[in-house]
Every structure is written in structure tokens, then in C-alpha cells.
């Protein structure tokens, strides 16, 4: 039994933030019904290549993007612009605990699927709305896109090479972090609302915004500005307060060295054959190393280029110097720690045979994550759900298909 196996979730969200949230809930056991547009589905079903390979090793129609955030869900297709489709959603809401959507502000009002309307049907409903900028404020009606929010929320102002590096510019994250983290916060908010409902019997509306989340997760950078009034700057892969704490080139790749004290620095330069650097007055303690980083770093980079990534990792680990490789994804999934933790997980797929997924990082001793279903094909469970939840017979379902409702 999953921790949330008693919870029913109706998922009207698309793309990333909402589906990331509902995948978390589904991993924990919730019965998640994903509502998609007939014939089209979630936008990310079309965001390829890359595509998953079928049993013959050929590209299928299942995109890697969609696969990443839609396991353990059942997919139904319903045209919510039709009265019949709206009626289906209302009836499913009456049987659900949670509804999550990421439509533009007030867009669902015209369909009678907004919180005010659905609360009358299900008073204890937990209704989570995810938008770019929230339900209030001058930007509420703007569409929200991850990269725009990364820029507006301060993330890109502190990410990228320092201003004095030739060609330096602000950089986005390698993955859509505003979307992903909003999905994580939405998961927390929903579970908190479920606990509150269990105590009081009351449902509520949750207003999640990508911009709010992006600013919140700026953590110490945002706090530094509020405390000091000084605007944080881009530092690339270095630290403002610790040297050396950054990436270094090797003869074949890159490593990270995080020498947080004088002893670690001494061990670092000693295994690199440059022990004299630890005795240099400019570098003998961290404040001096920070002060003279422009002189020190080129010397360390010249030193690290003489060995391979693997050689450096072995030497530094033996010398107890905090370090790590910068792995590509082939190296990630071949790492013995990653393999031991079972991060790559394979599930059976009805059309593709076996499908590889990235496992959930949540490890619960009493109610562990289960991989009950692969990411669904479009509308795969429409008949099943309508028969199970709404007791519609085959003839009624066929009529809805004929009318284009499903």
C-alpha cells in the first residue's frame, strides 16, 4: 500500500510543473487520472526527438520528455470545451480528492471547471492551480515559461561565467528548474492540504506560481541581497568565500575540488606535485587565497591538466580532499553508486516492451514507491476509467467517441 493509495487525483495539467507534481503523488500511491485533449494529448507528447525505442530498436511515438514525468498515471481523453466533456469532469471531480490544473488565470471559468464552481460539487476538494505568475498581480494573465521565469526571478543573474570573463553572459539551468521546483512545492502544498482536510473536513484552493517559486529557491542569494542590499553577481563555477572551490580542467575532462580548509588545500597541491604552493604567503590560508585567487587559480589549472579525471579522483579521495567528477549521462548511469541505488529502473510497456525510467529518489521504509504503470499512451485508460468511476456502459462510451467528446 502506497502512502497515498487512498487518494484520487484528477490531473488537468500539461507540460512539466503540473505533471511533475502528479507523478510524485502517483509514485506515492495516489490514483492519478491524466485528462488529455483527444487526438493531441499533452504538448510534451510531441516534444521529440529523442523518442523511446521499440522492441526492434526503432523510434516509437513516445517522447523522452513525456516519459520523464508521467509514469504511474492513467490517461483519458476528454474534450473539456464540450458540455458532455465538462459533465464528465464534474462527475470525476465528485469522486476525487485533488484536482490540479495549469490553465491561464480564469480560463476554466467559461467551462464551469474553476474552483468556485467545482467546490459546490465537492466541498472538500483540494484544487491546485499552477500558473506562471499566480492568480493575482499585474502579470497574472501573462503566460509563464520556465526560461523567462529563470530570468525574472534572479536565477540567471547569478548563473554563468563572471562578468570579467570574455564572452560571459547570463545562463539558464540545464533543465527547467522553475517548472520542476514548482511541481515539487505543489506536491508539498497538496499533501499539507490533505492533512488539513483530514483534520477539519475542509478543502481549499492552492495558488502556485513559477515566479514565486523561482525567487524562493534563490535561498542564500536572495537573502544576501535582502540582508546587505548588495546585488549578487555571477561567479561561474567558483565560490565567493572559499578558494579553491570550483571546477578544474584535467587532461581529458573536468573535476570539482572543494578544499574547505588549509589542510585539504595542502593535500591537494601535494598530490599534484606542487606542495610549495601551500607555503606561499599568498596562499597559506583561505582569506589570502580568496584575496589572491587570480594568481592561484592559473597555477592550479596548470597542475590539474597533467592528470586524467580518473587519476585525480583516485588521488584526491585517497588524500581526503573533497572532490568529484563532472559526468556525462553515460558516466552517471554507469557510476557504481548510482547503480547500487537503482536509479535506472525498467518497466514493461504495452507497445514498446521494456522502458527505461529514472527512479524516484524517495525511499520510504514502510510505504515505498511502486512502479505500477509506465507512462500511458494517449487515452489508453479512457474506457476503463469511465466504466469504473462513472459506470458508463459500452454503448454510452461509443456515443461519446462518435461525438468527438472522447
Distance, first to last CA: 32 Å
How many separate domains? 2
The profile of the biggest β sheet is: 6 strands, parallel
CATH superfamily of the largest domain: Crotonobetainyl-coa:carnitine coa-transferase, domain 1
H/E series, N to C? EHEEEHEHEHEHHEHHEEHHHHEHHEEHH
On the 0 to 100 scale, the average pLDDT is 96
% residues in beta strands: 15-25%
Question: How much helicity do the residues have?
Answer: 25-40%
- Overall body shape: elongated
C-alpha Rg (nearest Å)? 26 Å
CATH topology of the largest domain: Rossmann fold
Going across the biggest sheet, name each strand in turn: 5-2-1-6-7-8
Unreliable stretches covering 5 or more consecutive residues? none
Walkthrough of the structure:
It is a single chain. With 406 residues, the chain is α/β, with parallel strands linked by helices. The protein starts with 7 loop residues before the first strand and ends with a helix. The radius of gyration is 26 Å and the shape is elongated. Strand 1 (8-12), helix 1 and strand 2 (31-36) form a beta-alpha-beta unit. The strands form four sheets. Strands 5-2-1-6-7-8 form a six-stranded parallel sheet, sandwiched between helices. A three-stranded antiparallel sheet has the order 9-10-11, covered by helices on one side. The protein has 16 helices and 13 strands. The longest helix has 24 residues, at 177-200. The chain has two domains: 8-217 and 341-402, 3-Layer(aba) Sandwich (Rossmann fold), CATH 3.40.50.10540; 245-333, 2-Layer Sandwich (formyl-coa transferase, domain 3).
Amino acid at each position: 500500500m502506497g502512502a497515498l493509495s487512498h487518494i484520487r487525483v484528477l490531473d488537468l495539467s500539461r507540460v512539466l510543473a503540473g505533471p511533475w507534481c502528479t507523478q510524485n503523488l502517483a509514485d506515492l500511491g495516489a490514483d492519478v487520472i491524466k485528462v488529455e485533449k483527444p487526438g493531441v494529448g499533452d504538448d510534451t507528447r510531441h516534444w521529440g526527438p529523442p523518442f523511446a525505442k521499440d522492441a526492434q530498436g526503432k523510434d516509437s511515438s513516445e517522447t523522452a520528455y513525456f516519459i520523464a514525468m508521467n509514469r504511474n498515471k492513467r490517461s483519458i481523453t476528454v474534450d473539456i470545451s464540450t458540455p458532455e466533456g465538462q459533465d464528465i469532469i464534474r462527475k470525476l471531480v465528485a469522486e476525487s480528492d485533488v484536482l490540479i490544473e495549469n490553465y491561464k488565470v480564469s480560463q476554466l471559468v467559461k467551462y464551469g471547471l474553476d474552483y468556485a464552481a467545482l467546490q459546490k460539487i465537492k466541498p472538500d476538494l483540494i484544487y491546485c492551480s499552477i500558473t506562471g505568475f499566480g492568480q493575482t498581480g499585474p502579470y497574472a494573465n501573462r503566460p509563464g515559461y520556465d526560461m523567462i521565469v529563470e530570468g525574472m526571478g534572479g536565477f540567471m543573474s547569478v548563473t554563468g561565467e563572471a562578468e570579467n570573463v570574455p564572452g560571459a553572459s547570463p545562463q539558464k539551468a540545464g533543465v527547467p528548474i522553475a517548472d520542476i521546483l514548482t511541481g515539487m512545492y505543489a506536491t508539498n502544498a497538496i499533501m499539507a492540504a490533505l492533512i488539513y482536510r483530514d483534520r477539519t473536513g475542509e478543502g481549499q484552493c492552492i495558488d502556485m506560481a513559477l515566479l514565486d517559486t523561482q525567487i524562493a529557491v534563490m535561498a542564500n542569494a536572495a537573502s544576501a541581497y535582502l540582508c546587505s542590499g548588495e546585488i549578487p553577481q555571477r561567479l561561474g563555477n567558483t565560490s565567493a568565500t572559499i578558494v579553491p572551490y570550483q571546477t578544474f580542467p584535467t587532461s581529458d575532462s573536468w573535476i570539482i575540488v572543494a578544499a574547505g580548509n588549509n589542510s585539504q588545500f595542502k593535500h591537494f597541491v601535494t598530490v599534484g606535485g606542487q606542495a610549495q604552493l601551500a607555503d606561499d604567503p599568498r596562499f597559506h590560508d583561505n582569506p589570502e587565497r580568496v584575496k589572491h585567487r587570480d594568481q592561484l587559480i592559473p597555477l592550479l589549472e596548470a597542475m590539474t591538466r597533467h592528470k586524467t579525471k580518473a587519476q585525480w579522483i583516485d588521488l584526491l579521495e585517497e588524500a581526503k580532499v573533497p572532490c568529484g567528477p563532472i559526468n556525462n549521462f553515460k558516466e552517471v548511469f554507469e557510476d557504481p553508486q548510482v547503480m547500487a541505488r537503482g536509479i535506472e529502473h525498467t518497466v514493461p510497456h504495452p507497445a514498446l516492451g521494456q522502458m527505461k525510467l529514472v527512479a524516484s529518489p524517495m525511499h520510504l521504509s514502510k510505504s515505498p514507491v511502486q512502479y505500477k504503470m509506465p507512462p500511458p499512451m494517449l487515452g489508453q485508460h479512457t474506457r476503463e476509467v469511465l466504466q469504473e468511476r462513472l459506470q458508463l456502459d459500452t454503448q454510452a462510451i461509443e456515443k461519446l467517441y462518435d461525438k468527438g467528446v472522447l
